[in-house]
Specification:
214 residues, Rossmann fold, 34% helix, 7 helices, alpha/beta
Length: 214
């Protein structure tokens, strides 16, 4: 069975049973989901991220583009034991003061990560990560140059890289930057494949690209 098939088999509803009831709406103050209902394609995304962590069991996790912490939360809850260290970057260009909300939200998880660092910064101004990670999720600047930059600064510092919104029509810049990185870095990549929520429900516009390094 391929790695992708193994991951798809791990997709279930556990993330919604494990997270506090209000986690994915960040209380009632989160403006991104009207009526406090997580839309199906986003729900599938969090199920997928839970499954990815279930498969890889990362001890050290990072995300560029935290927003309110749902991705980090899903990854954390997919780990059998709480990750040792979780770091997130966000410049808060989507939601003002989102990192404060993300922190409070992530701290409601049972169990939360053992250690959590959220940094307000623009990833485009960073030239490298300050530590290495088992798994890094890239979901920040979705332009071609933004995604290319994030992929390039993350690659030397992780075993598994997730590039979110790998989609030719909805996010052509992310799609192109990922494809170019794959073509130029065959020698350091162990395995790579896309997993879209379409693989299991047909209801998602999103895609995630998984790159495992040697
Ligand atoms: C699609 S949202 C992330 C959603 C989140 N990963 C989740 O699972 O809920 C993108 C986030 O990236 C942040 N962002 C955009 N450009 C950025 C940049 N250059 N540096 C850091 N964060 C950035 C935005 O503020 C926003 O919170």
């Amino acid at each position: 069975m391929s790695t992708k098939e193994k991951i798809l088999r791990l997709i279930n509803n556990d993330v919604f049973y494990k997270a506090p009831p209000e986690f994915f709406t960040c209380g009632s103050t989160d403006p991104i989901y009207p009526d406090n209902k997580v839309p199906q394609h986003h729900a599938n995304y969090y199920r997928l991220y839970h499954a990815l962590a279930d498969h890889y069991q990362p001890r050290r996790i990072m995300e560029i583009g935290v927003r309110l912490g749902y991705g980090i939360g899903s990854l954390t809850l997919g780990c059998s034991t709480p990750p040792d260290y979780v770091e997130g970057w966000d410049n808060e260009c989507y939601i003002q003061a989102s990192l404060n909300k993300a922190r409070k939200n992530i701290e409601t998880l049972n169990p939360p990560p053992k250690s959590l660092t959220l940094r307000k910064l623009d990833s485009q101004k960073e030239e490298k990560l300050l530590a290495s990670f088992d798994l890094v999720s890239i979901d920040g600047d979705h332009t071609y140059s933004g995604a290319k930059h994030d992929i390039e600064i993350v690659a030397p510092y992780c075993k598994v890289m997730l590039v979110d919104d790998y989609h030719p029509k909805n996010h052509p810049g992310v799609f192109r930057a990922t494809n170019e990185f794959l073509a130029a870095n065959e020698g350091i990549i162990k395995e790579h494949f896309s997993v879209t929520a379409d693989d299991f429900t047909g209801q998602s516009i999103k895609g995630t690209y998984v790159i495992e390094f040697k």
